[in-house]
Amino acid sequence: MRVLVAMSGGVDSSVAAARMVDAGHDVVGVHLALSSAPGTLRTGSRGCCSREDAGDARRVADVLGIPFYVWDFADQFKAEVIDDFVDAYARGETPNPCVRCNERIKFSAMAARALALGFDALATGHYARLAGGRLRRAVDPDKDQSYVLAVLTAGQLRRALFPIGDTPKSAIRAEAAERGLITAGKPDSHDICFIPSGDTQAFLGARIGVRRGSVVDAAGTVLAEHDGVHGFTIGQRKGLGIAGPGPDGQPRYVTGIDAATATVQVGRLEDLEVTELTGRDPIFTSGSPLAGPVQGQAQVRAHGGIADAVAEFVDGDLRVRLSSPLRGVATGQTVVFYRPDPDGDEVLASATISAAR
Predict the structure, then answer these.
(1) Closest Cα to residue 340, out of 282, 275, 280, 295?
(2) Which domain holds residue 263?
(3) N or C: lower Cβ tally within 10 Å for the chain?
(4) What CATH number did the domain enclosing 224 receive?
(5) Is 101 tagged catalytic?
(6) Active-site positions, per UniProt (predicted)?
(7) What's the CA gap between 161 and 3, in Å, rounded?
(8) Do residue 58 and residue 73 come from a single domain?
C-alpha cells in the first residue's frame, strides 16, 4: 500500500512513519509548510511547522530511507484556520484551531492531494485508534487526540491510519531513541501553533483592533469597559478589568459574551453550569445520523470537560442532554459524543456548539 505520512518534525509522527516502513508499505514523508514566515523557529515547546521542524522531519526521513517533500499549504492554512480562528473570536466564540486544521487541511486538502497522486492512505502521529473504520480513543488517555479528529467523515477515516494510537507516549519516546531518531527527546508542542508567543489576546487584538464595550453583571450594571470581546472566553476569571469580587465575596467569571452589543457579562461560578447543548453542522463518523436518543458521553474540550449524556439528531442539529453540569462551555467549541466501550470509547458524532444552557 502506498502511504503518505504527515511528518510534523515531532517524535510522534517520526515513529508513525517508522512503523509504516516496518509494515512493508511504500512510504513517503511530507511536511506541511503552514507559515508565511518559514524562517520562524520554535522556542522550546512553543510553535510548530517551523524551519527547524521541517529539518528534523527530513533527517528522520533520511534515517528511515524514505522520500521526503515539503508541501506549501500556508495560504490555505491562513484562510481556513487562522482567519476562521480570528473571525470566531470576533463573534464572541471560542474555536479550536486544531479541530479546524484536521478538518480542512490535513484530512481534506492534504488528503485530497495525496489521493490525486495515487496514495492509498494518509498516516499521522495522532494518538487515536481505528477499528473497523470506527474512530476510538487512544490507549494513552493523557495523550488521546480522538477529540480533535472527531470532525473526520466516514470516507476520510477509511483512508486514515494512526499507527501509534495503541502505545503510551513514554514507549513512543523510547522507541524513537532505540531507532536513533533525532526527535526522540524533542519537547511536545503546545498552545496554538501559529501563536508561538502564547499571547492569544495580543494576536487577536492586532488583527481585530479595538471594539470597545462594557463588562456588566447579571442585573446589567456596568462594572468596567473593555477593548473587544475577543479578549474574553466563557469561564474566564482573571483580566476582567473589574475591582474585587462580587457582592457575595466570591470571584466573578465571564458567563456570557454578546459580540453584537460588545457586552461581556460576569457572574458566579454556578452561573457557568450547563446541562443542554446544541451543535450545528454535525458530523457522524459512521456516515449515518444517530438513530433516536443514544446514551454515551459528551466531551467539550480536548482535555477534560466530559459528562455522561444522551444525544440525538433533531432538525439538523446535534442535541445533547448532560446528566451532570459542565462549566465553561462556550459557543464555537466542539462537542464530541462517544459511546463508552471496554476496547476504547468510540466516537459517534461531533458538532460545533451553537447554544448552551
Answers:
(1) 295
(2) 210-271
(3) C
(4) 2.30.30.280
(5) yes
(6) 101 (nucleophile), 193 (cysteine persulfide intermediate)
(7) 9
(8) yes
